[in-house]
Write a structure and sequence with these properties.
6 helices; globular
């Protein structure tokens, strides 16, 4: 909920801090993932969904500078390496086309 509030901030530093938090969270989850991947409870474990939807919202906002987008791309790449669930959800949300759209905006 806090992330949604700050995702469309008019302050460049807040936006950069937000994507840095996403990058740090993805890095932590990847580093601490069990060898066989996480065991998800489909009813309550919606962290992959929340993370990926936030990334999608940021991509679609058009507010973020090149440095923030670069960090966001690394965060997404790290997240999809956490386990197969993250990758499958990213594919289902068409994250690749969202990233292509953002890349086209930033040349």
């Amino acid at each position: 909920k806090c992330v949604d509030e700050y995702a469309t901030s008019g302050n460049k530093n807040v936006r950069l801090a937000l994507v840095t938090v996403l990058l740090n969270a993805a890095s932590y989850m990847k580093a601490s993932a069990p060898a066989g991947g996480y065991q998800y409870n489909s009813g309550t474990d919606n962290l992959p969904d929340l993370f990926l939807i936030t990334v999608g919202n940021i991509c679609g906002s058009g507010l973020y500078e090149a440095e923030a987008i670069a960090r966001l791309v690394v965060a997404l790449g790290t997240a999809v390496l956490i386990d197969g669930t993250w990758l499958a959800k990213a594919k289902a949300l068409n994250m690749g086309s969202m990233l292509q759209h953002v890349a086209d905006q930033h040349g």
